[in-house]
Design the sequence.
């Protein structure tokens, strides 16, 4: 079967650019790591430029959008990382674990196996994102799917060994990373086909669902109903739309995944 992002990844590089605040938080969480594996690396967003990065990415469509300045991606998937135990200083997985299907737990445990130091997972808490106007009132199908596909942050922390911290990452109004969560401030983005298709939320919906949502948002913007109901959001500079960063520190000295030398 073709990797999912071979179908929905085209154009991703245009509207999903790095958010500088999120990059800074990832950088801080990686600490002094020199070698970092980025699993579900996609086009390379959030890869720290001054460290040695090994990129793991199963989709050709995503891998070919990687700029030449970044390391080429190794075609592999999270559930079986082609790396030895403890062979990298750190691991990162940015907005990808929810695509790992039946490899989610195995993949997260693989991050712990291969990294001797910190692990940084950026994810979404579907209990929070599902309350955002778009998912709650227009697109409950995505809220439902997210509950099934995003492991809860506490679950990720548990798979990582229990000592992980979970932090809220508010999303800035002007973030250049137009994830579905960024739509909290931008109903107009729902009308932009390119922007929609670069979010897996929209891209995984049927045409019928997408047309319904686009039609309703267009109508509610034109009539002023959207602004009446949610217009107070336009005054905010950032908002908690569910984005979370889960950070595990160095692994314990014993137990599975110990370095094999
Ligand atoms: C939303 S994109 C995120 C890409 C990148 N991390 C970023 O922040 O821009 C999700 C990525 O996960 C990749 N992916 C899907 N299933 C995967 C799996 N089983 N193992 C590793 N990566 C996977 C997709 O191909 C896609 O590139």
Sequence:
């Amino acid at each position: 079967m073709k990797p999912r992002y071979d179908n929905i990844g085209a154009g991703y590089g245009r509207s999903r650019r790095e958010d500088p605040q999120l990059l800074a938080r990832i950088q801080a969480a990686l600490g002094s790591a020199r070698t970092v594996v980025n699993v579900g690396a996609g086009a390379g967003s959030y890869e720290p430029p001054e460290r040695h990065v090994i990129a793991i990415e199963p989709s050709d469509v995503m891998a070919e959008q990687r700029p030449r300045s970044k390391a080429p991606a190794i075609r592999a998937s999270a559930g079986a990382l082609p790396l030895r135990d403890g062979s990298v200083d750190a691991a990162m997985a940015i907005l990808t674990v929810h695509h790992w299907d039946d490899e989610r737990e195995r993949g997260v445990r693989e991050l712990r196996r291969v990294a001797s130091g910190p692990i940084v997972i950026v994810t979404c808490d579907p209990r929070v994102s599902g309350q955002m106007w778009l998912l709650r009132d227009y697109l409950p199908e995505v809220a439902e799917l997210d509950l099934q596909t995003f492991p809860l942050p506490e679950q990720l922390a548990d798979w990582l060994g229990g000592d992980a911290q979970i932090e809220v990452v508010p999303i800035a109004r002007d973030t250049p990373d137009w994830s579905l969560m960024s739509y909290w401030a931008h109903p107009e983005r729902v009308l932009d086909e390119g922007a929609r298709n670069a979010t897996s939320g929209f891209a995984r919906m049927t045409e019928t669902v997408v047309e319904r949502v686009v039609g309703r948002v267009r109508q509610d913007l034109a009539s002023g109903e959207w602004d009446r109901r949610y217009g107070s959001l336009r005054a905010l500079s950032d908002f908690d739309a569910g984005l979370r960063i889960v950070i595990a520190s160095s692994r314990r000295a014993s137990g599975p995944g110990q370095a094999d030398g």
Observations:
- Residues 207-223 form the longest helix (17 residues).
- Residues 253-261 have pLDDT under 50 and may be disordered.
- The chain has 13 helices and nine strands.
- Residues 3-5, 16, 39-43, 45-46, 57-59, 62, 77-78, 94-96, 99-100, 103, 200 surround S-adenosylmethionine (CB under 6 Å).
